Amino acid sequence: MKFWKMNGAGNDFIVINNIEAMIPEELLPEIARILCHRHLSIGADGFMAVAEPTPENREKADYRMIFLNSDGSMGEMCGNGARCICRYGYENGLAGEIQRVETTAGIVIGKRIDERQYRVRLNDPEKIVFDEEITLSGETGEEKHICSYVELGNPGIPHCVIEIKNLREYPEDQLRELGRRLRNYQGYPKGANVNFYELTGVDRLYEKTYERGVEDFTYACGTGTGSVVTVLTLQGKVSGQNVKVDMAGGCLTIDVDCQEGTVKNLYLTGPTNIVAIGDAADEELKEKLKGKIKI
């Protein structure tokens, strides 16, 4: 199985061209679970397959992005994944300088800025709840947290947005546990990616994301970053233009086009990196899929 290993600001993915491979889509979750395991296989936060657009989007999209988390669960969309797959599409002749990508959450438009920088228009925010008080039960009793909630696209990619003072110094084990509990909060029917942030300057912030489907921190989260900046822009805490977001994997830039208090366009810009191109020769995968597909 031919694959590319890519990352966008440290958010890493395994990418295959399923237009050529023609692997039955029902087998992709098992392939994702095996190949994304960091200690037993290639390792990645997520798995993406390029596929033909669905019939209703054949005239609107260059190709379809099937996105799966590392646990094999289906994701609606992934911002950093979209930037990487736009580069993959350009490098492999599937699209030109502008890429039209069908995702479960809607059509995403990408643009090649230069060899490594790509910009995508993220899905529109379909739901935003500001400063909701959330109660979590813990060993020491009830804890209350003020969180905002954003869904990008339809069906929406769910994000919890929560401010944490001194985020860089906050004990990681404690933050991970809080992320796990917020991710599974009963008020979020699909669960949520949990985006911790701290304002560090004018139009500058630091962010850490506990991702649903990875069930741990990732080095970056594109849709999470877009969700955080959307909330802060609408609350007047950042300008919404050229907002820089630092995280473990690097820096992403968000631009929010607001008109009369409504987000009309939401853009994510950042680096892509091709790490490896090769053949997935995983013997565990071959054993699991023996007789089903040719690896």
Written overview of the protein:
The protein is of the alpha+beta class and 295 residues long. The protein is built from six helices and 17 strands. The chain has helices spanning 18-21, 28-35, 79-91, 172-183, 222-234, 283-288, and strands spanning 2-8, 11-17, 46-51, 63-69, 98-103, 106-112, 117-121, 125-138, 141-152, 157-163, 193-201, 204-211, 216-218, 243-247, 250-259, 262-271, 273-279. A hairpin with a 4-residue loop joins strand 12 and strand 13. It is globular. It starts with a strand and ends in a 7-residue tail after the last helix.
Secondary structure category: alpha+beta
H/E element order: EEHHEEHEEEEEEHEEEHEEEEH
Task: Give the end-to-end Cα distance, rounded to a whole number of Å.
Answer: 5 Å
Radius of gyration: 19 Å
The description of the largest β-sheet is: 17 strands, mixed
What is the count of DSSP helices, taking H or I runs of 4+ residues? 6
The total strand number stands at 17
Q: How confident is the prediction overall: mean pLDDT? A: 95
> How helix-rich are the residues, as a percent range?
10-25%
β-strand percent reads: 35-45%
Shape field: globular
Contiguous runs where pLDDT drops below 50 for at least 5 residues = none
